[in-house]
């Protein structure tokens, strides 16, 4: 059998070195001063408005592509179907966001959950309405 030497992981350290390091650290903390800045950097309202607007523009464009915005041009269908498809996507997305926001709050909000579920049910009804009116 091989014999292993004991390693001294916990050696006693010199107390003089420790006290010197502590004193040096205390001197450093006294030298460091913090500068208070009373002004807060807030983005300008125009900049935040532009960011918000582009965010919602991307969502609208994505919903338009998901609902098949080019379908009426390629298959000679009515534009009403595409608009109803976009409405379905927006209602479902809005309902999902409301349910997510309600469940991630500290206190669960039953009003937001019921509103989100209502929007999803309306979206489902709109899907059935769209397929019942489709004459193919």
Describe this structure in words.
With 136 residues, this protein is mostly helical. It has a domain at 67-132. The chain is built from 5 helices and no strands. It has helices at 15-31, 45-66, 71-75, 79-104, 110-132. α2 (45-66) crosses α4 (79-104). It is elongated. The termini are far apart. The model has no long low-confidence stretch (mean pLDDT 76).
Short recap of the structure:
With 136 residues, the chain is an all-alpha fold. Helix content is 68%, strand content 0%. It has helices at 15-31, 45-66, 71-75, 79-104, 110-132.
Quick tags:
136 residues, mainly alpha, 5 helices
Layout of strands and helices, then pairs:
Blueprint: H1 15-31, H2 45-66, H3 71-75, H4 79-104, H5 110-132
Helix pairs in contact: 2-4, 4-5
List SSEs in N-to-C order. HHHHH
Range of helix content: 55-70%
The N- and C-terminal alpha carbons lie at a distance of 85 Å
Averaged pLDDT:
76
Structural class computed from helices and strand pairing: mainly alpha
Number of helices: 5
Largest sheet: none
